[in-house]
Design a protein that fits this description.
13 helices; five-stranded mixed sheet; Nucleotidyltransferase, domain 5
Length: 341
């Protein structure tokens, strides 16, 4: 039997698919394994190159399989798809993973440690509660509008709707008032939990030296700084700041051909949480910049004078990402340049 050099592993909830190949890429075996048998198989398999798609649970399996001496690589699913032949099946996916990992120019995802994944849980949990809060606010606005009660958009005006809801003289029927009151109580509970998450994030930002340095960047607060430390991969994986900004999805898509460069909208690839936080921080900087008398020769003033506001915000977020990379790569502090803002 030929020696297995590469194994493509397509993970799932219960039944996993494996595709083994020799040094020349020839098929050695194709097999299915139950979840409970996967680690037993790799514990007896000679050390080789094992590839998985970077999806849910992939980092756990990568850590576990690495303990048996295997070289484990995680591949973005978008880079595996071109190698899938005809119809999509588990066997075809495992074979495609096995072929993709052998490409010399393939890009891989760094394997996260348990501590790194645990640090990101607070942001995932907070995002979930924020989405639920938005859903309840929108539901309250929709239900109350059916009874002629409306208010301007935004959480700041939610108090007006609640005042109308609890007012016994309002047009809200008693049958609906009791149900909507439960939604208001749920909303208040969500706000309390979100506040607890915010306190935990601020505490982490104060205790982490790198997060404290990042908060000195205009537009980067405790939440963004802590998220960058917890969710961003090691900056050593990026050769320059532009590569880090591209990973965040803050660079434009390119549709160039025939020697002509054509750029479109931002790619929106990479970590969406970090991208959203940087854009929100850049938006706050631009808003504050417009309230004061701006220096006419600054980069931000020149951009705002000739570019749409949203484009400038994304460009500033891109610039912030490059600054973050430089500070994390060199361990330096933020330095304000005369023409930066």
């Amino acid at each position: 039997m030929p020696t297995v050099c590469t194994i493509g592993l397509d993970i799932a909830k219960n039944v996993f698919q494996l595709h083994g190949a020799d040094a020349a890429g020839g098929v050695v075996f194709r097999k299915q394994l139950r979840r409970s048998k996967v680690l037993d198989f790799f514990s007896t398999c000679p050390p080789c190159l094992v590839a998985l798609e970077a999806c849910g649970g992939a980092h756990y399996w990568a850590r576990e399989i690495t303990r048996f001496g295997h070289d484990v690589r995680l591949i973005p699913p978008a880079y595996v798809k071109p190698f899938v032949k005809r119809q999509k099946t588990d066997a075809a996916d495992a074979e495609a993973i096995c072929e993709a990992v052998q490409r010399p120019t393939m890009r891989f995802v760094a394997i996260k440690s348990e501590a790194a994944q645990a640090s990101g849980v607070v942001f995932r949990a907070r995002d979930l509660l924020v989405r639920q809060r938005i859903q309840i606010i929108n539901a309250l606005r929709g239900h109350l509008s059916e009874f002629g009660i409306v208010a301007p958009e935004g959480p700041a005006y939610l108090g007006r709707l609640i005042e109308q809801l609890v007012d016994p003289e309002s047009a809200v029927p008693d049958a609906a008032r009791a149900v909507l009151a439960i939604m208001v109580d749920t909303l208040r509970l969500l706000e309390e939990k979100i506040a607890l998450f915010d306190k935990e994030i601020v505490r982490r930002a104060r205790e982490d030296e790198e997060a404290r340095r990042l908060t000195t960047i205009p537009g980067v607060g405790p939440i963004t700084a802590t998220a960058l430390v917890a969710l961003a991969p090691a900056v050593s994986q990026f050769r320059r700041g532009r590569d880090f900004a591209a990973w965040l999805g803050l660079t434009p898509k390119e549709h160039s051909s025939g020697g002509k460069q054509r750029f479109g909208a931002t790619s929106k690839m990479g970590e969406r949480t970090l991208r959203r936080l940087l854009i929100m921080g850049a938006s706050a900087v631009v808003q504050h910049f417009g309230r004061r008398k701006p220096p006419t020769g600054s980069w931000l003033a020149q951009m705002l004078s000739r570019k749409p506001r949203m484009l400038v915000i994304v460009a500033l977020a891109n610039k912030m990402a490059r600054i973050v990379w430089a500070m994390m790569a060199t361990g330096s502090n933020y330095r304000t340049s005369a023409g930066a803002a």
